[in-house]
């Protein structure tokens, strides 16, 4: 979620995390479901408002 909050695409996240793009999508979808929202943007927003991820500058 932190990379999504930093504006990274699924492809960029897959490279950073050394996992496949479908795996990134699976985890984003799963996080959205657990946060009871629909979609990537809502999941990132909800996670940020709950304090799970920061919305400030990312640390690469």
Quick summary of this structure?
By secondary structure, this protein is mainly α. It has four helices and no strands.
Question: What does the model show?
Answer:
The chain is mostly helical. The mean pLDDT is 90. It is globular, with a radius of gyration of 11 Å. The protein is built from four helices and no strands.
CATH homolog superfamily: Winged helix-like DNA-binding domain superfamily/Winged helix DNA-binding domain
In angstroms, what is the radius of gyration?
A: 11 Å
Number of domains: 1
Average residue-wise pLDDT: 90
The major β-sheet equals: none
Distance between the termini: 14 Å
Unreliable residue stretches: none
CATH architecture tag: Orthogonal Bundle
**SS field, number of helical segments:** 4
Could you give the count of β-strands? 0
CATH fold-level label: Arc Repressor Mutant, subunit A
Mind telling me the CATH class? Answer: Mainly Alpha
User: What is the percent of helical residues?
Assistant: 55-70%
Instruction: Write down the secondary-structure element order.
Output: HHHH
- Give the CA-based shape: globular
Q: How much of the polypeptide forms β-strand, as a percent range?
A: under 5%
Give the topology.
Elements lengths: L1 H4 L4 H8 L3 H14 L5 H10 L11
Q: What characteristics describe this protein?
A:
single chain, 60 residues, mainly alpha, Arc Repressor Mutant, subunit A, 4 helices, globular
């Amino acid at each position: 979620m932190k990379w999504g909050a930093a504006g990274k695409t699924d492809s960029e996240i897959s490279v950073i995390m050394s996992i496949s793009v479908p795996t990134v999508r699976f985890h984003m979808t799963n996080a959205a479901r657990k946060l009871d929202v629909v979609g990537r943007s809502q999941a990132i927003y909800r996670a940020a408002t709950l304090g799970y991820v920061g919305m400030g500058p990312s640390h690469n």
